[in-house]
Amino acid sequence: MNKSAILAAMLILASSSAYAYENSYAGYSVKDGQPYYKLEAKKVYAYANISSKKAYQNEEDLKNTAVNIVNYYTAEDMEQILGEKFSTAYFDAEYEKLALLERSQLNPKTVPAPLLELEKYAEHDSNGNLTIQSKVLKEKLEKLTPLIKTGKIAGKKVITISYLYKQGDVLVKIDTSLVSANDRLYLLSTVNTDQDLYAPKKDEKDADADADIDDIDTDAESDENDEAKTEPKSAASAKEEMDKALEVENVFVRDVPAETMQRFAKAHTDLLKGFKAFAPTSTPKAISFTDTAVGKSVQLPDDWFYGQLNLRYKNKGTFYLTMASSMKQMQDVAANTDYDNIYSVFAIPASDPEYQKKVTELYTSGMRNVLEHWNHLLVTVSVDNINDADAKELLATPVANKLAVESFINDGLQRLKGFGNDYFALKDYKTNFDFTKEKALIGINADTDLLKDFAYNNKILLSCNQKAATAMLFIKKTDAETEKSLEQQLNEWHF
């Protein structure tokens, strides 16, 4: 074999696995192409279909971004969902049944199809999964007419359920494909949006503006309008307005431009073609994230998730923002959110003499519901290719700069400690400063009270060298248990 052939073969092998997410325990990999945003949990991986290199450099590309989501279920999970034994052979039999109905031009809904009852998957979300058919969208999707199709893509038998609808001024298409291998089921979903098709045209906006001017003809009419604006709404009417704004409406394919439908189809097909199933391993995959801007990694507890934003600017370096917390805690927060309180806030007229007091009381009540279930939050931010001049100036005279920064931060914290109310209080704090000509480190450990009843410990680390800067914030409820390995990793989040 000549050198050219060897080089070509190496390139093919490299490109086949480049920029791919793999979960060996789940038994799959998917080509994600270094996405600018991704979210990972025990049984779900979601990512944007635009790379970090393109994000915010081409506005049109960003506007047409789709989100891909991969969920997986073991045979045991599926047995709980279906109420009967599951295997890939079971899936194949269901596939053939639906394919026969499709060839006969019969509605798949005419026969029982437990696999297609996606609301059952949403009920199983508490077991480390989070599906597009979650409680947030369940009621909306129930009002829509899905299109069910079967087919083979890249050698895989695929059952696809699609929704095409309008919500407000946005066209939305959700495709969820069911694929099975090694007695596991995978849900591969793509959420596409188009913000142009139903966007108000410029002449419509001008007409609305003219109509507003025409409304103000006489003093009498102005007084009537003022009275209408100040008339209090009920929480029920505020909820009705919100529901109307979020209302969904079926859209027919024939009413959507062909190029838009082609873009939607390509995004989902790319997901399916980039998905590969293989024999799963027996060792569960650890949930961890890496911040390559500063060369730091953190392995998270088993029930945690993280979301990461990764932006690479040409000639300006890379920016990373990562947030992580417990999946169960976040689901508990969502499940216990008092939405009636939110509608009540919208219902209070600004002219109400006690407007601020009532809004504060409602927000406080809502925040209390959140804090009762929320124990941990981890946030990291970093940037590389920082301004060399600024870095050199900070590190050039470490002793003097340390004294200046130490004085400024300790003075600010002392002032904050003297300020306290029913919503926030700084109880105690410790600081640490380490400045050399190679790096600068600022460490703050603070104890705070929120709404008086909820005590939190807050760890803040800020550090930089001449190439990069990073910040880490870890908030945890004082009486909540935290894995020691996590705390040890966070203590090392600095240069």
Provide an overview of this structure.
With 495 residues, the chain is α+β, with helices and mostly antiparallel strands. The protein is built from 16 helices and 20 strands. The strands form three sheets. It has a 15-stranded antiparallel sheet that branches. Strand 12 (288-291) and strand 13 form a beta hairpin. The longest helix has 21 residues, at 398-418. 25% of the residues are buried.
Could you provide a short overview of the structure?
The chain has 495 residues and is of the alpha+beta class.
Q: How are the SSEs ordered, and which strands pair?
A:
Blueprint: H1 3-17, E1 20-23, E2 28-31, E3 37-40, E4 44-48, H2 59-63, E5 67-73, H3 75-82, H4 88-103, H5 119-123, H6 135-142, E6 147-153, E7 156-167, E8 170-181, E9 184-194, H7 202-215, H8 219-230, H9 235-245, E10 248-250, H10 258-274, E11 275-277, E12 288-291, E13 296-299, E14 304-313, E15 317-326, H11 327-335, H12 339-347, H13 355-371, E16 376-384, H14 388-396, H15 398-418, E17 424-435, E18 439-450, E19 454-465, E20 468-477, H16 484-491
Q: What would you report as the Rg, rounded to the nearest angstrom?
A: 27 Å
Share in β-strands: 25-35%
Low-confidence stretches: 5-17, 220-230
Distance between the termini: 47 Å
Average of pLDDT:
83
Instruction: Count the E strands.
Output: 20
Instruction: Categorize the overall geometry.
Output: globular
What share of residues is helical? 25-40%
Q: Give the biggest sheet.
A: 15 strands, antiparallel
> SS-based structural class?
alpha+beta
Number of DSSP helices?
16
